[in-house]
Amino acid sequence: EAQVTQNPRYLITVTGKKLTVTCSQNMNHEYMSWYRQDPGLGLRQIYYSMNVEVTDKGDVPEGYKVSRKEKRNFPLILESPSPNQTSLYFCASSSGAGPSSYNEQFFGPGTRLTVL
Amino acid sequence: EDQVTQSPEALRLQEGESSSLNCSYTVSGLRGLFWYRQDPGKGPEFLFTLYSAGEEKEKERLKATLTKKESFLHITAPKPEDSATYLCAVQENYGGATNKLIFGTGTLLAVQP
User: Fold this and answer.
1) In chain A, whose CA is at the least distance from the CA of B37?
2) Are B43 and A110 a contacting pair at CB < 8 A?
């Protein structure tokens, strides 16, 4: 089954404690992205990756890091989480086929992060 | 500043009552406009991609259309299972390079039996 998986699904942590949210896709997609979703603000892109070792900032990259060492994995790293990073996070992937790299983008189930 | 605006914020329909959702955008060039459906507690589910003005896509009771300034998602004879939040997103065409994806805040659709 084609899917994007994220772990953990729920996480409660404290300010300053480094954490990593993993993301994996089994569709051999080139493009992957991380988004956060907040009430009233909608989905905002944090980082995206066009291929292995190629990443770029989205709209809200401050406080986040990413890496793309393998095509299937795209972890999101919070080096020193703060309460304003409490949010619902989504990873997504797409093949990049056609004029747009975001065509038929698949989303993961989400990770709900609470930073105390 | 590039912007994607969806209206209305919320819409309540009776089963069978057709309507349209709007997504207006301001970008210097459009590379793609996307519609997603999101159910509570789940990730968005891809519905359509539109690339150029005049283009239309259909899927069951949904039809998406695109002009130079906005897109409409037409829902014909909706059923309660069409209840969800519908999201619009835009990728700008800027110098041929891959660019950011900008989402609207969505329209919450409730279809009552």
Assistant:
1) A107
2) yes
